[in-house]
Prior knowledge:
This protein is mainly beta. The protein has one domain (about 5-320). It has helices at about 5-10, 15-20, 85-90; strands at about 70-75, 80, 95-100, 100-105, 110, 115-120, 125-130, 135-140, 150, 155, 165-170, 175, 180, 185-190, 190-195, 200, 205, 210-215, 220, 225-230, 230-235, 245, 250-255, 255-260, 270, 285, 310-315, 320. Strands 2-1-3-6-9-12-16-20-23 form a nine-stranded mixed β-sheet, with helices on one face. Strands 4-7-10-13-17-21-24-26 form an eight-stranded parallel β-sheet, with no helix packed on it. The longest helix has 8 residues, at about 5-10. The radius of gyration is 20 Å and the shape is globular. About 55% of the residues are buried.
Amino acid sequence: MSVWALALLGACEVVYTTDCLPPPPGQPGCTDPLDTGVDSASSTTGDSDSSPGTGTSSSDPDTGWPAGEWVAALQWKGLVFDTIQDAIVDADDGDTVLVSPGTHLERIDFHGKALHVRSTHGATATILEGGRGGSVVSIRGMEPATAVLEGFTITGGLGYEDHGGGIFVENADAVIKHNVITGNEAGIAGGIYFRHGHAVAHNNLVVDNLANQGGGAVVCTNCKGGFRYNTLVYNQSAQGPAGEWFYEPQGDLVGNLILQLDDETHAFRFMEALGYTFDTDYNLLWPEVAWVPQGGEDWPQGTGLVYQEPRFEDLAAGDLRLANGSPGIDQGPADELDADGSRADLGAFGGPDGDWSPDAPNHPHRANPWDTGGSTE
């Protein structure tokens, strides 16, 4: 991971020294805000399909979080586990897999299940470290749209089959939201790879990923979903540093904010798009370069594109919220609104699901329209 990407994670760490994040029941609280209650030794195994741990009944009617220390738990079932993958193996369709704060040396696979896998305390506090052993997250078993990955920093991935360093989604309709995807590498799609299916990635920070061939941030191969309201910063590839759309894709590319390195000659590459049945509207791209390489004038350009410097709160420190006066404010589709009712901003914090922060806890009853986790009471 680059020094700049580390700054992204470190920029928000003050939250642990100035404000106490409410811990899961039974875990350490405000007396030691740096103590997350996570046993790092129990979170160092990856890709484990071993038998799950025994469960403990939950007595908390408000969150469904089991008492005691745990790495992962099944919300409302009172079951706790030493690894995230063990929780996934034991889970049933419709379950929420909670993940506690810490750096988890795991690569996880949804195994075709309709699960909501989410952190309890947000992406800055909850890191999935792939150890360069493959894609950090695999969702490749026809998972439905109720399969959700939310609230993680995903890093250290080296693409499975040389595709999808951070996340590999294939033949699935899953939702990827409110994550920080950084420091991953693959031949194709350093950050996220979509192949077939109707998966959607929205409101993510995709930062400093590398593809050795094409698609530094994202690749859509015959995908039918969407890539909406994401912030892409300093992803690299010789072909399509921001992304590539291949082979009859229908995945919309809308509402994103893309900041590239100064020496890039184009942002995206479109190949065999055949009819352009996807939208490429309302995106911000800086520096101003072509969407596609020279000679690709017939590929889709989109409407409502903004070619101006985005103006973040503090790019050097990794704060990628839009600053006052940013040209990305109120530039999304006219019929889509931010959570405050104004016209949608571009980037990861824009649109109806943009009311999130990578360093804020994801509580199951947050009064935000994007929150689908936890019990409905």
